[in-house]
Specification:
Length: 266
C-alpha cells in the first residue's frame, strides 16, 4: 500500500514537471513567432517611409506587370487622312417644285470640318402654277389651253455650305445652311412647234440667280451619302417677263425647290 502511494506521488510530480516544461516551450515558440511577425512588419513600414536607403529596409525586387498596353507605331486615323478621304464630293440630284421635276449636278470641296464650297447646276422647267394638261379628243395629243412657250431655267451657282452642330451630332447626320449666286440660263421655245424643233430654235436669256438653303447630309462622308435640302431661288427676269400662258407673264423664275442628292466622295 505504501509502495503504491509512493508510486502515484512520483508519477504525479513527473507529469506536472513535464507539463510545465511543455507549456514553457509552447509559450516560447509562440512568443518568438509573434516577435518575428511584428518585427518584420516594423521593418517593412520603415522601409516604405524612408525608401530602400534605410539600413533595415528590405530590398524590393521589381516584378513586371502582367498587363501589357500596346500603342501603334503610327496613328490609326490622322487629320490628314480624314480630311483628304472625302475632301472632293460630287453627285447628282432630283429637283421638285411647283414647276415639276428637274435634275442637277454638284461638285463640293471641303475647306474645313464645318465649311465647304460647291458648284451647282440645276435644270428644271418653268411654268405658271395653274397650267393643266388635257388630251385633245380629236387628235389624241396632249395640250395646255393658252400655252404659248415652253420655258426652262438652268441656274449655275457657286456658294458655300456651313455645317451646324458639328460637336454635338454624329457624323452620320450633318445639318447645314447653304447659299449661292451665279448666272441663270432661261430657254424660251415656241409651244406650237414640235418639241425638238422648238428646242433647236429656242431663244436664250441670261439672268442673275441666287438662293438660300437648309438641309442635312445623311450617311458616311467617306462613302456614298444622301443630302436632302430645301432651297429658295430668286431669279428675276425683269422687263415684262416671259409668257408661258398667254397674257400671264412670269417675272421671277425662282421659287422653292426640294433637292434630293446622291453624293460620292473622291
Amino acid at each position: 500500500m505504501a509502495y503504491t502511494l509512493l508510486l502515484k506521488n512520483i508519477t504525479s510530480m513527473f507529469l506536472t514537471k513535464v507539463c510545465c516544461q511543455l507549456n514553457k516551450k509552447v509559450f516560447l515558440i509562440v512568443s518568438m513567432l509573434c516577435l518575428s511577425m511584428f518585427g518584420g512588419l516594423f521593418l517593412e513600414v520603415q522601409a516604405q517611409d524612408t525608401g530602400n536607403n534605410h539600413p533595415f529596409a528590405i530590398p524590393r525586387i521589381g516584378i513586371p506587370d502582367t498587363m501589357m498596353v500596346f500603342s501603334p507605331s503610327k496613328p490609326l486615323f490622322s487629320d490628314t487622312m480624314s480630311s483628304t478621304l472625302y475632301s472632293h464630293i460630287w453627285g447628282v440630284e432630283l429637283l421638285f417644285s411647283d414647276n415639276g421635276f428637274g435634275t442637277g449636278f454638284v461638285y463640293q470641296k471641303l475647306i474645313s470640318k464645318k465649311v465647304s464650297g460647291f458648284i451647282h447646276l440645276g435644270v428644271s422647267g418653268a411654268r405658271n402654277t395653274d397650267e393643266i394638261e388635257y388630251i385633245d379628243p380629236y387628235t389624241g395629243y396632249p395640250f395646255i389651253p393658252g400655252k404659248v412657250n415652253r420655258l426652262f431655267c438652268a441656274p449655275l451657282t457657286v456658294g458655300i455650305q456651313y455645317r451646324l452642330f458639328s460637336n454635338s451630332l454624329s457624323e452620320s447626320f450633318r445639318p447645314f445652311l447653304s447659299c449661292g449666286i451665279g448666272p441663270a440660263l432661261i430657254v424660251q421655245a415656241k409651244y406650237d412647234d414640235p418639241y425638238f424643233t422648238s428646242i433647236s430654235n429656242a431663244t436664250l436669256h441670261g439672268r442673275p440667280a441666287g438662293f438660300l438653303g437648309f438641309g442635312a447630309g445623311i450617311g458616311n462622308q467617306a462613302r456614298s451619302m444622301l443630302s436632302i435640302q430645301g432651297r429658295y431661288y430668286y431669279i428675276p427676269f425683269g422687263d415684262k417677263g416671259l409668257e408661258s400662258i398667254k397674257d400671264i407673264p412670269i417675272t421671277d423664275f425662282g421659287g422653292f425647290f426640294i433637292s434630293l442628292q446622291l453624293l460620292f466622295s473622291k
